[in-house]
Amino acid sequence: KSDILVQEYVKFGSLDTYLKKNKNVINILWKLEVAKQLALAMHFLEDKGLVHGNVCAKNILLIREEDRKSGNLPFIKLSDPGISITVLPRDILLERIPWVPPECIENPKQLSLATDKWSFGTTLWEICSGGDKPLSALDSSRKLQFYEDRHQLPAPNWTELANLINNCMDYEPDFRPSFRAIIRDLNSLFTPDYELLTESDMLPNMRVGALGFSGAFEDRDPTQFEERHLKFLQQLGKGNFGSVEMCRYDPLQDNTGEVVAVKKLQHSTEEHLRDFEREIEILKSLQHDNIVKYKGVCYSAGRRNLRLIMEYLPYGSLRDYLQKHKERLDHKKLLLYASQICKGMEYLGTKRYVHRDLATRNILVENENRVKIGDFGLTKVLPQDKEYYKVKEPGESPIFWYAPESLTESKFSVASDVWSFGVVLYELFTYIDKSKSP
């Protein structure tokens, strides 16, 4: 049986999403108030000798919105930290730079009260920038380099605020201020002087600091999708090893996000995961009008589950489309589809890939004038010294589409894909009529 943690429902969601969604209406006072409430929560934990270990805007929940008419201020709560950084794999720790402090990258067992002070500094930077993610455009090795060179995040123009962030993010853990001192510094910012400031004074100045890290503060890597923003809409297909779902990727939580197709494994054995990673790498390397577009990947917390994100093609598989729209599809249209499949397969051949599963069920329809090849789960790369590939591992095979040499000798090549294409032509021109199946 699995244990389930039940928490209160929070209407306005996580702070980072809210900040991005309301970037143009949130003012300096709002940001200072939220930062102060977070500092008070952290002071409470510090007083009890408790370490949170994962302070970030994503883990802050907005319970109440500001209501300027009634004078109600925004109200936030700190959420649970999730899996402790002391047990997370190193690659995830590196991804979490600059929220995880330098000493914990070196040795995660150094988790301490000082850890939360560093993370608070990063989170304060997030709040100031309106929900932007610092260093999100850098890969793990460059993030590590950022720490090794002892860089600081670009500071806001507001000197006192910049000093507070830098003090929290001191590379010497012992020099970081207590949360009592942080609250005092935040309170001192609530002076008549702040009314003379403009919003831009709170925004980090991207022209200074982080020298040599150009591009570090651009948007996140567009091929990395966050699990929490994927909203399930419906199942598109299910096989023995995986399933494909239609989801909306909705980072602003307002139902305006893009609809995508998400493939995930049913059973994550090491072997299946390895094959899935290979499939992802293959699709990632392909750019052709008649091949389904790769959009990215999504890892669950702790990287236990991997998902492949692809473009969503609204008309489903060519097999189903042929049966449903038989009356509308004349031979001219079928020849157009055949030609497009040919072009996609020719492109695959130039990359030395053998698809091994070409069938109308794996061709997807974008619109009535374009089809695309999908499902590269069985695809293999031809060795440089041979024009065929011998499959050693047994597995379920689509034998009715296989060439004779594939069935008798487990040999696959561009020529065996041509055989499968012949079967696809037969499927096309019989409109998948079972009575005409050989």
TrEMBL record:
GO terms for biological process: cell surface receptor signaling pathway via JAK-STAT; cytokine-mediated signaling pathway; erythrocyte differentiation; growth hormone receptor signaling pathway via JAK-STAT; intracellular signal transduction; regulation of apoptotic process. It comes from the Eukaryota. SUPFAM superfamilies: Protein kinase-like (PK-like). Transmembrane segments: none annotated. Keywords: ATP-binding, Kinase, Nucleotide-binding, Transferase, Tyrosine-protein kinase. Pfam families: PK_Tyr_Ser-Thr. The keyword Methyltransferase does not apply. The keyword Magnesium does not apply. InterPro entries: JAK (IPR051286), Kinase-like_dom_sf (IPR011009), Prot_kinase_dom (IPR000719), Protein_kinase_ATP_BS (IPR017441), Ser-Thr/Tyr_kinase_cat_dom (IPR001245), Tyr_kinase_AS (IPR008266), Tyr_kinase_cat_dom (IPR020635), Tyr_kinase_non-rcpt_Jak/Tyk2 (IPR016251). ATP binds at residue 264. One of its GO terms (cellular component) is membrane. Residues 1-190, 230-438 form the Protein kinase domain. GO terms for molecular function: ATP binding; growth hormone receptor binding; non-membrane spanning protein tyrosine kinase activity. This is JAK2 kinase. It comes from Sagittarius serpentarius.
